[in-house]
Structures are given as C-alpha cells and as structure tokens.
Amino acid sequence: MTNAQLASIQWGLFLSVVFLLPQLFFRQLTFRSATITVYASMLFSATFLPVQTVPPRQAVQLVPFQWIADTFRDGQIAFDQMTLNVLLFVPLGAMLMFWGRRTIGQAALIGYGVSLLIEGSQLMWANRIFDVDDLITNTTGTALGWLGALTAVKIYARVRTAALPQRSLASVR
C-alpha cells in the first residue's frame, strides 16, 4: 500500500468521525446512517484525497483494460490499483442489495452512475485522471458486492432453516 493510499484511509477515518459526531450528538445515529456515512467518507477520501502535487501523464484514459498493459509496464502497482477500485465499490453493491432492494442490473447501473460522477468530477479536480478502467472496475465491484450480499442472505436463510427443529408427523396429528 502506498503512502497516498494510507493517507486516504486516514482522511476517510477522520471525515467519518467528523460526520458521525453530529448524528451521535443529536441522537440520530443508526446502523444504516453510520454505515453510509463511513462508506461515503472513505469513498470521497479515496477518490479525491490527498491532493496530488505531481500532475498525471495524461488527463483522460479512454482505452478499456489499459491497466493490463500498465501492469506489465509499471509492475504490481497498476494491478493493485484496479483491485482496490473493485473493492472500493463492493460495499455499495451490498448496501443496494440489503437496503435498496435493487436488482443486480439496477445496482450495477447505480454503481456505474456513481463512478461516472466521480470520474467526471476528477476532470475538474487538479491532478486527477478520468479513467475508463475505473468505470469498469467500479461497476464490477458494485455487482460483486450485490452478489456477495445475495449469497450471504441465501446462506443465512439455509443455515437458519436447517437449525429450526423439524416437526414430526406425530406432533401434527
């Protein structure tokens, strides 16, 4: 993990506390609001903080799956960046499945929209790059999060059903 990524995590934790304290103070803190606040703080800090001082080589990257060539050229860091992009959007997919009651297609579309909003605003942000690979990996992360949440729900239902005592036919009569 790079120093910039560690700094982003620190900023995300700091912003989470800043935004959670008023909710706690006014007694409006719920599990759902806390989860959304922490996720939004981490998402913002990972995509916009810290402000980079070195300008990128390009402002826009429109070649799909360019990260593969970048991995061969730059090494493991390009692969790690794409993996982190997928992981960054997994919670969004899970939240959309659990709380939003969305289909996988709707969740993927919302993930794409959030990613497009972030990437579009990075065009205006100093020293950030619009990357089509980020759109792909973020949307993939949202869909994987939705599928993971669905799998967890199905496993939980199966375990819970198996744990219930079975009624015998004699007790029914």
Automatic annotation (TrEMBL):
VanZ-like domain segment(s): 38-149
Segments passing through the bilayer: 6-26, 33-51, 82-100, 107-126, 138-157
Sorted UniProt keywords: Membrane, Transmembrane, Transmembrane helix
Family matches, as PANTHER family: INTEGRAL MEMBRANE PROTEIN, MEMBRANE PROTEIN-RELATED
Listed name of the protein: VanZ family protein
